[in-house]
Amino acid sequence: MEMIDSLDYVVVMTTMALRAVWVWVLLCATIAHGQETSSFFLEIDGKLVALPAAKSSSNESRTSVGRSIHQQWDSPLRIERVVQVYDSGAVTISGRITNTLDHDIALDNVKMMDIAAAAGRWKMPTMHPSPAVVYVGGSSVLACDPPEEKDRQYASSQFMALADAKTRQGVVIGFLTAQAGWPSVSAKFELGHGLMNVRADSRVARKLAPGKSIELDTVYLASNENAFTALEKYGDAVAALANPRPRTGPTALWCSWYAHRMAMSEDLVLKNAEVAAKNFKPLGFEIMQLDHGWQKGDITGNWVPNERFPHGLKWLSEELKNKYGLKLGLWIAPTDVADTSDLYKQHPDWVLKGGDGKPLVNWRWYWKPNPNCYELDASLPAAKSWIEQTFARLHSEGASYFKIDFIASSAGEQFSPADPYTTHGWGVLNSAMHAIRAGAGADAWIRYCQPPPLLSVGLANSAYGGDDTYDAGVPETMRTLRDNARSLAAGYWINDRLYHREICDMSVRMQADVEEARLRLAIMALGGCSISFSDELQYLPPSRIRMMQQVLPPGAPAMRPIDLWDRSQPSVWHLHCSNAGRQWEIVGLFNFADREEERTVQFVDVGLPADADVAAMEFWESAFAGIHRQKLTMKLAPHTCRVLALSKVTNVPQVVGTDMQILQGMHDLQDVKWDDQKATLSGVGRRMPGLLGRVFIHVPAGFDPHFDFPLRETSAQLTHISGPIWAVELPFSSATAPWNIPFGRIPPAP
């Protein structure tokens, strides 16, 4: 690559990135002497204004974290831009616009960055194929696409990550905040030439009064030799800038929707709470959430209980707490307003208007009585105050968990035709989300359905970007599970960085076969989601209750889909586990296809040495999958999953899995120890009273479980499973069950 003569204001990545030629070329944004490859444009009063470097004042300074370049333009407005070059290799671009005129101005799109392959500047190697990509579709759904042998245009809301298919080097282009406007990024790739153009735009779409300023959202660019690390560092950068700080951690709950739809009642909620308290509460279950159907008229806008809840919400919340130790949760769609609601009848002026000045119909309510629905304009102070007061009231009546639905329709390009510079979708949504948190309070759990990720940071406890998962056993199951799993995989790096990542509430009822139920539960648990059941619990058979218990308590280590850059449906999910004196790898293998397929785990990809023996235990079948080196390949039937615990084999007896909880030791074991002097393996099982469980132990050559004859209390108390695998069976009379297994050493053959 050729550089221009002056390097006074060249943004150069780390030495590490220099080895990733296409990444380095992308991020070398020259800002020098009037010859920019990183341009800055904005639309003022409907006109595109370019800001030439020749007319700007600029200075550079050294900071504690790198170099900072400050630029300022004073015509037609005061416009400031700061380029921060971090020693870590990341680059950020931020800015401010101040209206120095004597009248309002209308700001629309601000092009924060436009890096183009100017003639003679970039010489790039031949590139085949195009990069794999992780991106945001629409305003909220994360997705991924593999490399392709063709020219490509990439476009995404908020951010995107590109990865070289061969080297796995990666680059992230995105925004760190989304307070000023609707952020979007794009890139162009040409086979044989590489990345030819990268842009970052923010649609501000607002009027700015004289003397007022707007802080522009910060753009972030960084590369890394590991594309996973590039994504995760981007998440860390977003979290570091968030105010308020991100909320993290899972919960476990019951949702009424797939259990009862709109036939839900006060009595049914309490009956399900009784079952949940008995079977799930000791394993971390907390919340009974009423979904659509609790509110007056079964429409949006009337957020008071209907006739199926005659005692009211406060009474119900107290019953749940006093009888079962559980909390009340509510589904609510605060920005959706039915034209038959009291809210619309009283305040039709609070909704978005069309070009004719009349209320703009957003959609027709799917459920009877099927009224037209409008979008509440939360940018209006009165409407925003109503949202805040509504949540404050519901919180005072005992609701501490809120599932927020249909709010994402406020985002994206939904601009009011009447005046797009005063009422725009992104700002409406931003205002509504702040009002929800202010009203519900700092301690309430707020879970969003399909919100923009960057707007959720600090405001949401949890969120999901996929579609409904539907009732277990219905024909649409595999399509929606496939789509949700893809979104979870593409957004793996979000979980407990920006907020807690979720999936829609999950049904596992009897209409689904065992494999479908396993698939549903594994997606939810291995994805690190909160555990959200949604079935009529009173009539589930013990076998389904047992499976549901196997994914409790909620909470999992960070997951990485190790085939994220290889396929549009990542199907090998990895979690590194460390607990109770042992370390092991959990790998979820998924087959969403309609035919049998193989899945392979390369041990180096999950942190295991290629030259070590690795024991594999499969969770759902409680089956020993053998001792392997370098890799493990497994055939999966259509629409199935298998969950493997992979443990590096030692030369002494060791735990290699359990059948109690899907992570096989993360939540169900503690204090696992090998005493070499006494030749004993000991530990403590941890579940709930009344359950049974097994701990699987690999016994290597040179050891045998010690059995007295006749049997005594000091005997091994192990059951032989197969080959080198034995099991200790644990009946839980209390929450813990200690175990201690003696072994005998077998002298080597002469």
Strand-helix topology:
Elements lengths: L9 E2 L3 H4 L2 H7 L1 E4 L2 E2 L4 E4 L2 E4 L6 E7 L2 E8 L4 E9 L4 E8 L6 E12 L15 E6 L3 E5 L6 E6 L1 E5 L6 E6 L6 E9 L3 E15 L4 E12 L2 H15 L10 E4 L1 H4 L5 H14 L7 E4 L21 H13 L2 E6 L3 E3 L3 H5 L14 E4 L7 E4 L5 H16 L2 E6 L20 H16 L4 E5 L3 H4 L5 E3 L12 H14 L9 E2 L12 H13 L4 E3 L8 H8 L9 E3 L10 E8 L2 E10 L5 E6 L11 E5 L4 E6 L2 E6 L3 E9 L5 E5 L10 E7 L4 E7 L5 E7 L4 E3 L12 E5 L2 E7 L4 E10 L5
Parallel strand pairs: 19-20, 19-29, 20-21, 21-25, 25-26, 26-27, 27-28
Antiparallel strand pairs: 1-2, 2-3, 4-5, 4-10, 6-7, 7-8, 8-9, 9-18, 10-17, 11-12, 11-14, 13-16, 14-15, 15-18, 16-17, 22-24, 23-24, 30-31, 31-32, 32-37, 33-36, 34-35, 34-37, 38-41, 39-40, 40-45, 41-44, 42-45, 43-44
Give a summary of the structure in a few sentences.
The chain is α+β, with helices and mostly antiparallel strands. The protein is built from 13 helices and 45 strands.
What does this structure look like?
Helix content is 18%, strand content 36%. The longest helix is centred in the middle third of the chain and has 16 residues, at 381-396. The protein is α+β, with helices and mostly antiparallel strands. It folds into three domains: 10-241, Beta-galactosidase, Chain A, domain 5; 252-336 and 379-557, TIM Barrel (Alpha-Beta Barrel); 571-745, Golgi alpha-mannosidase II (Immunoglobulin-like, Sandwich), CATH 2.60.40.1180. It has a nine-stranded antiparallel beta sheet, sandwiched between helices. An eight-stranded parallel beta sheet has the order 28-27-26-25-21-20-19-29. Strands 5-4-10-17-16-13 form a six-stranded antiparallel beta sheet, covered by helices on one side.
